[in-house]
Amino acid sequence: MKAVVDKDLCTGCGLCADSCPDVFEMQDAIAVVKATPVPANAEECTKQAVVDCPVEAIKVE
């Protein structure tokens, strides 16, 4: 699984980094993916981050 953050849509709320810190981190008030591919033990929180993102800036492939 691969996670992608659309930096043009991201508002920097930090929900993804809070819920899945092994995969997402905040850099300059924008979420970035720090684990590619997503580790198997973090797939569920990554999927939850997609659902929780208020602006739908996160996609998984």
Description:
The chain is globular and about 25 Å long. The N and C termini lie close together (6 Å). The mean pLDDT is 98. With 61 residues, the protein is α+β, with helices and mostly antiparallel strands. The protein is built from 2 helices and 4 strands, in the order βαββαβ. It has a single domain, classed as Alpha-Beta Plaits.
Q: What would the keywords be for this entry?
A:
globular; 2 helices; 61 residues; alpha+beta; 25% helix; two-stranded antiparallel ribbon; single chain; two-stranded antiparallel sheet
Number of spatially distinct domains? 1
CATH fold title: Alpha-Beta Plaits
Per DSSP, the total helix count is 2
Largest sheet, strands/sense/barrel: 2 strands, antiparallel
Morphology:
globular
Mean pLDDT over the residues: 98
In terms of DSSP E residues, the strand content is: 15-25%
How many β-strand runs? Answer: 4
Flag low-confidence runs: none
**Mind telling me the CATH class?**
Alpha Beta
- Strand arrangement within the widest β-sheet reads 1-4
Broad structural category: alpha+beta
Distance between the termini: 6 Å
**Helical residues, percent:** 10-25%
Radius of gyration: 10 Å
CATH architecture assignment name: 2-Layer Sandwich
Helix and strand pattern: EHEEHE
